[in-house]
Amino acid sequence: MSLDVERCDSMISVGAPGGGGALSALPPSADQIESMTSAYERKRDGLGRASTEERFSLSLIASALADELRLAQTPWIFVAHEWRVHLSNGSNGKIDLLGFDPVTRRLIAIELKASEAHATKPDPNGWDAARQADEYSDAIWRGRDELYPFFERLITAQAQLYLAGGEMPAIDLSARPATAVWWPNPLGDHTPAWPAWNASELTVARDSPRVARYRRHQSWWREAQRHVAPGPHPVVPERLVGSTFDTDAVAADRRLNFIDEAAYQHAERRAQEVQLEGGTLDAERLFGNLLSSMPMCFNLFGAIGSTPGFVDLVRGVFDADAAEIDDVVCEAPSPPQWDDRTAFDAQVDYRTRNGERRFLAIETKYTETFTQARYDRALYRRVTEESGWFRIGAAEELVEPATNQMWRGLLLMAVAEDCLSATGRYIVVAPDDDSDARVGVEKVLSWMVPHEASRLRFVSLEEIVEGADRIADRRLNLWSSAFGERYLPGPTSIGERPS
Question: Structure pTM?
């Protein structure tokens, strides 16, 4: 192929039109070279079409050949171009670029597009660019017994020709090829240098459909709004997952996981204070995990807790008697009388119109379940009985995993009431479709005496966002838009991939 990117509007072969004039013996004569050169120039200058994608591909190859095979600004090595494969639907496809990462020792199927818009546009199979790259990766993986040894020999030969050291590590035979989707940007380099947000490589196989949907949405937000590469899986760090940030990016900018400066500043302050209070706070979850409910809590209560209009939101959504906000704290400290690790995700202290002191004890969930453990102590039984909030026999039922965490949260609230001389309300905040949280709340309510049932409620994220939208407060309105985009995929999520 011609690498004359400056003068070729699309990808063309160097030979003469129709396959004629090909070299059949070496060395060629001067007449042969002149004839083929003239034929190539006529073909080049007479091109009837232009292709941004093909010119982008040629520019990447030309740059790689001039830079020890390195592809753009990555450590990846150029291996092959337009490698043909058999796809899962029986059709054939061509891998735009095949690379090799000497760090992870994985092949990389790179799909090139003319622009970001083209990367999301379905092809005739109904596949977007990420799905195409996945299909190419799967095709190589299916044929790995034959292809991996071949590509390893090819990489070794090319390293000896183009690399100063002349050596490359062996392909990891246990690893499926990674994927990437690139398109030109105004700077002239590729975008982005990581698997696309909806690449199958960034998913988690054991996710339920609901969790997978929210994880895809957070992966989209990471790439679309933060332009940051994915980070390590929280449990399997050698794997990438779409719902975490690259650790180097977090180290360079700890604001990435927060929708505004107020949320970030509250997170930094509480990260230090919690340690001084003798508590524990998982900084990796807070600053690097997009799917965690911990940063979500800061992006909600930490972001707008100091907003003048917040009292209107509390009054409209949580307590119609709220008149004045005293304090809002995420990762709230527990009373010293409570020697349990249970804590409120957030605490909102406020006063009613008649001056009564009240507080909201907030438990947030995004995709997590309640703690699936059966904690039981004499302290819990004693507070259950002394509070007067529960029916006889409640402790024997609520100790079970489905309700244990909420039960302990209510008991902590009972202790906090005595310590603060204030009345509490325990609020479970989660997406509207969190049926497990709703069912858990209903089960706990069934064991509370009727006149105390107002102490426990399920409030959806959607209710809070809609409540903020109705208030004539610009900061709340801006927050509701940013928070909704970040956390609520909607009925037809952008994270849903075409089949």
Answer: 0.81
